[in-house]
Amino acid sequence: MERLLLILFKRFLRKSVPSQAVTSEQKLGPEQYVEKIRQGDEGLRDQFIAEYYPYIAKLTSRFCKRYVDPNRDDEFSVALLAFNEAINQYDAEAGASFLGFAKTVIQRRLIDHARKEQRHLKAIPYSTYDSEGDDGAVYNVLDTKQALDEHENNRNIKERREEIEELSQELEQFGITFPELVEISPKHADSRQMLIGIAAMLAQNGPLMAALRLTQRMPIKELMEQSGVSRKTLERNRKYIIAIATIMSGSYPYMNDYLDIRMNDTAAGKEVSR
User: Fold this and answer.
1) How far apart are CA 62 and CA 171, in angstroms?
2) N or C: which terminus of the chain carries fewer CB neighbours within 10 A?
3) pLDDT tens digits, the chain, 274 residues: what are they?
4) For residue 69, which phi and psi values (nearest 5 degrees)?
5) Cα 236 from Cα 78, distance rounded (Å)
6) CA distance 260 to 96
7) Count helices and strands in the chain by DSSP H and E runs
């Protein structure tokens, strides 16, 4: 259940992309991306790689036979570099699709990485990590670190689950559910950026947030005055704005970190507040 909710969160609150990003109507195929990049349009490289993050993460997790965290695992960084390498080396005339070629490059680099790690572990005797405590007892640093890491991971999982449940209950007071948010999430980056900026305004205004939580009614008039956005737009995106403002203003560190949304770092908020 926790994994499902995290997936829904990420789908409904996708990271904003630059406003010059290609729209859905102009969306390029992998081979077209590579061709334009190789012709000198380097601005598309980061966009292309970001768009295929899920593909890269999926390949990496499948290779490692476990979930690979893009923010923490070295294997994802290796795969990311391999994907970029594939952009530079791809030859359309060879007949293979770009994604098929990229998959091969990623797998080769991951194999090289795994072999390197194995050689490193074999080269260092396990007993090297033995240490003596103040009481004279011998303990292994690796075993201790592994136990502490496992404890920390379990604690994080528990706290994240509790946070999701708490947020779910708070959003239910506004008649908001996660599956519904996925459906109503703005499709275009500019729209998402603008709405996140408006949500930041709301989240940073203590009296307005207090009134929102008390009445379950979004302060349309005040937000119209501060943002210059029409009533129709605010009402149409009411649930999206409320959900983001609730996360920003509440005690939800995991959700803020997971979604990479920070009130002070929201460029849209700066633009809308001008």
Assistant:
1) 34
2) C
3) 555 555 555 555 554 444 344 444 457 788 999 999 989 888 888 888 888 888 898 888 888 888 888 878 888 889 999 999 999 999 888 888 999 899 989 988 888 888 887 765 555 554 544 554 445 554 454 555 555 556 566 666 777 778 888 888 888 889 988 777 777 788 787 888 899 889 989 988 889 999 998 999 999 999 999 999 999 999 999 999 999 898 888 777 777 665 554 433 344 344 443 3
4) -80, 115
5) 42
6) 36
7) 15, 2
**pTM score, two decimals?**
0.46
SS3 132: strand
Give the amino acid at 221: K
User: Three-state secondary structure along 197-253?
Assistant: HHHHHHHHCHHHHHHHHHHCCCCHHHHHHHHCCCHHHHHHCHHHHHHHHHHHHCCCH
Exposure of 41 in the CB half-sphere (CA atoms within 13 A): 13
The backbone region for 100, taken as left when phi is positive above 0, alpha when psi lies in -120 to 50, beta otherwise, is: alpha
Which residues have C-beta within 8 Å of that of residue 198, sequence separation ≥ 6? 223, 227, 229, 234, 241, 269, 272
The two tokens of residue 183 are 């459906």
CA distances from 229 to 27, 226, 252 (A): 28, 8, 28
Tell me how long the chain is: 274
Report the C-alpha gap between 83 and 105 in whole angstroms. Answer: 7
